[in-house]
Design a protein that fits this description.
Elements (H helix, E strand, L loop, with lengths): L16 E6 L4 E6 L21 E6 H12 L3 E3 L3 H7 L6 H6 L5 E5 L5 E6 L2 E13 L2 E3 L3 E12 L2 E14 L6 H17 L3 E6 L2 H4 L8 E7 L2 E6 L1
Antiparallel strand pairs: 1-2, 3-13, 4-5, 5-7, 6-7, 7-8, 7-9, 9-10, 10-11, 12-13
């Protein structure tokens, strides 16, 4: 209670609100992170709780609210990608470094919900909403969406996200003409590389990440009705 609570000041988000309660054998906590113009889950998850020592649940709106502030209306250029990754203290891969040197391209994200996330029927569905795109001197001022769905799995300490289906590119309204055809092919190639068939394939070592806590293992992962639930033992 006396410790300072986390704030996402760098993203311009307000301090999250908390509530706690307990029973004879469990402790419950709810955190809501929302800006004045954003939406959040109106009630806790209704997913059945698994036989876990710790259950963590996140609503799809939490992800959308975070990226709204960062990407809403922003123009992302290929020359900015390596700097963007460094802001999150992530490693700039050789592939990403090369991308910043190719022919100039950019995408401008929609102002509202630039990234839509849906957790349903065991899948995590990601949709990027773009209002404008450019490639060299060619500019296409036509909204488009790029969508990919992934199914998570956790086996023997390894987390995977496997894509189901193809990456779907859709233009809003009529998309005739050489510029639209060329841009669709360009986006398809770029985002097929981004939304890879296997997006994540990595071991999860909770003991190393949280050395002061008891030994932890992921016991279950559920995605349904807008909620992600992770059970930990």
């Amino acid at each position: 209670q006396q410790q300072s609570r986390p704030e996402f000041q760098r993203l311009g988000l307000p301090r999250p609100s908390y509530s706690y309660n307990s029973s004879a054998d469990a402790i419950y906590g709810i955190m809501t992170q929302i800006a004045p113009a954003q939406l959040a889950a109106s009630q806790p998850s209704s997913l059945p709780k698994t036989a876990s020592d710790l259950t963590v649940e996140a609503h799809q709106s939490a992800v959308m609210n975070l990226v709204d502030t960062f990407f809403g209306g922003r123009t992302l250029r290929n020359s900015d990608l390596d700097d963007l990754v460094r802001q999150f203290n992530a490693k700039v891969t050789e592939e990403l470094a090369e991308e910043s040197k190719v022919q100039t391209w950019s995408i401008t994200f929609a102002t509202f919900h630039p990234v839509q996330v849906e957790f349903d029927d065991g899948l995590a569905k990601f949709t990027l909403r773009i209002s404008q795109m450019s490639r060299g001197d060619q500019v296409l001022k036509q909204p488009a969406t790029i969508t990919a769905s992934y199914r998570p799995s956790y086996t023997a300490g390894n987390l995977r996200l496997d894509r189901e289906g193809t990456v779907d590119i859709e233009f809003v309204g009529r998309s005739t003409g050489l510029a639209a055809v060329s841009m669709r092919a360009f986006l398809k190639g770029k985002f097929e590389d981004f939304f890879k068939p296997v997006l994540v394939d990595t071991p999860v070592d909770l003991a190393t990440r949280f050395p002061k806590l008891p030994q932890l293992q992921i016991a279950s992962i559920q995605l349904d009705n807008g909620w992600l639930q992770v059970g930990v033992r």
